[in-house]
# Entry
Amino acid sequence: MHDVSAPAVHHHAPPTSFIRKHVFSLDHKVIGKQYYALALVAALCGMLLSWMMRIHLAWTNAAIPGLQLLSPNGAPGGVMTPEYYLQLMTMHGTIMVFFVLTTAPFAAFGNFFLPIQVGAEDMPFPRFNMMSFWVTFTAFIVLMASFFVGDGPTLGGWTQYAPLNSVGSVGGPGQGLGVILWMASIGLFCVGQLLGSLNFITTTLDLRVKGMSLMRLPLSAWAWFITSCMGLTAFAVLMPACILVILDHVAGTSFFVPSGTVMNDQLLPHSGGSTLLWQHLFWFFGHPEVYIAIVPGIGIVTHILITNMRRPLLSQRVIIYSMGALAILSYMVYGHHMFVSGMNPISALAFSFPTLVITIPATIIVLIQVFSLYGSKLRINSASLFSLGFISMFVSGGVSGFFLAQPSIDIMLHGTYFVVGHFHMVMGVAAMFGIFAGTYFWFPKMAGRMMNETLGKIHFWLSFVGAYCIFMPFHYLGMAGNVRRYSSFVDDFLQPLLPVHQWITVAALLTGGAQLIFVYNLIHSRFWGAPAPDNPWEATSLEWSTATPPPFDNFGGKHPVVYHDPYQYGVKSSVGDYVMQTSPEQVVTEHEEK
Amino acid sequence: MAKFFAVTIIIIAILSAIPVLRHTWDMPEDISTHGSLIDEQMTETMIEAGIAFLAAQFLLAIFIWKFSNQSPDAKIKKFPGGAKALVIAALLVVGIEVLALGVFGVKAWANVYLTPPAADAMPIQVQAGQFAFYFRYPGPDGKFGAIHPELSNEGTQNYFGLDPEHDPASRDDIVAAEMAIPVNKEIHLLMHAKDVGHSFFVRELRVQQDFVPGLDVSLHFTATKIGKYEIVCTQLCGLGHYNMKAYLNVLSQQDFDDWIKKEQAMQ
# Structure
């Protein structure tokens, strides 16, 4: 913790040049906004790709105007080839998982608000922080570059299973240079997130101001801290795995290609590699990654809900412990992605049990959130609607996890649309709802202007109903055995399911279109929204105790002092039914958690 | 608006449950000896997950309906029992549910993966390669010839890379593009990947298993109903993945014997 007797001197001077202010900025707030902008661009790209995929799945021979311009070979006359479908699918998954679901809730909001919520003037390593963003940005450019070089991006899916990822161009379009660019991009992304995680952990542990004990941290700060601990270990495993694949391509090594592999009637010169090794390395990262995407959402929406319920949670501590349990268990469950992979079937049982157990902390989180609504004075606004929508989606996506956690049921559901429905709901839509909730809630502080509430609510209704119309039927398709990652459905048993795909496509186009309302609201409010007061939501945590937007050093040359738990609502104070963490005013409360 | 939201959640929850209750999109009828346990496990899980889903959505909706937009003078109330009751409830209810599913599920899994095939199970080898399955029967000598990857050649139809010139065991091997098996006879399926990862999925058989390049894995099952079923690949294997399929022909013993004789004559 800071020595409060010391004068508040910012450890890097305010920037003066445009480049230092807005481009290569050391300020965590600017970096947070840069991450947000990157995530927004990435999300629009990912959504556009999903539209094209959905149109192709529902009407396989439909020409998509303009697609031939992106790839004359991949989409002659605008009609997608099977391989181009897989390439777009791979890019959709990669962009969404890495550059949207990881960057927006964690890197964007975390960068902007974690230092402010702990009372710090910046992150402890601002240069690492700047590097973290620019490395991530470079990773995005490298990934997108694969659209325009050689025979396009890799077609191996966001999981990039071996040995398809290591055999080179003989494996299909994009499997040469496309894979190398994918691996280079994700390797760089890992470096960016490692630098970010290091800063987040140190900020939380070392830069808290006087009075800000760990248990007085808001839940969003706790979520970012726990996520950064996961990030530090998960990305550290994926990065070397990516390097090993690149070596298999360029240095003649055989980490992931076994001997005896024959492609195009040619015996490949590889020997001794293990394909399951890739799966172990990938999923040791991949499952914590699911929680890296969703834990910040849990923290953000709970933080927002408490503010809008005007009462503290039934227990903040239980939520913190439960998020911690999710993080620890996330490393012990990764093998549930590999039940039918050919690994020892006894390990399947060993991985199944913790996977089932992880539903306990998840259930506790939902129960605490839902039962805290009991007896509250819930305010309905765009931020709280998306937070409540998050709970609904998290439950819907979570219960399908019960099925996939069991190896025996996985025999039927593995590799089907059931899995696609499950992860889209629980880590895709739920996490997106967390991002939207965070945006409607924090935009006033970030931009100094309010967002349009009416547009926000319209955006919510279309997104909430639309997401269910898209992703619930995915589960039904999976139960009927509809295999995922097919560019079209030629099998006899898949033909009757085509109308369901057409329904999903129409819903996806409409729901995707509704996101443009959000983009319009964001841009319009940024320039023409009503000026935001310092504390528009009558909230208690530190980000609302400083000016809007916050000054360069966050608290105008002062170190705030914290007197209260983060969520003192439902009390009687001089300002209303709440007391801010930084207010020395003593209030009577029965909610203080010991 | 809050009440409208609450009603929307309830309508969505009910609409979501209807196709499941009406079995609109279920798996086809099981034709294996081991599948009934998997189906039972699926049904039990559906009941438990369904109750959890509906209960959570309804509770959320009810609380939103009841506690939104209260008057400024309304008093904050606390859920009786507090967090402790909820944690205990979650530990007990979900804990028991998890234990039950976990323990009962072991039997269904063990049936497929942790029991050895019967001594008289019929061995069939399946090879997966971009983008076709090929099936090999050991022939009258009961032995498979060794695979020599360097001899594998689609052009000469030596799909498995056999060397009949030097390897007597391979001379009577029967290679086919469809998989025929006798009904009610246990099959020991030996799975070999020629190039990248693939998978073997037959919905009616309740069987799905990945091929692992460099590692031969095996499965055993018994089909109980005569008919023709689709075998599809469920592991992304390249541009032709969507079209990688073969047929499983479950025949009477007599028909199977005729089929294998015919195939043998064609080798």
Summary: Chain A has one domain: 24-257+272-544. Confidence is low (pLDDT under 50) at residues 1-9 of chain A.
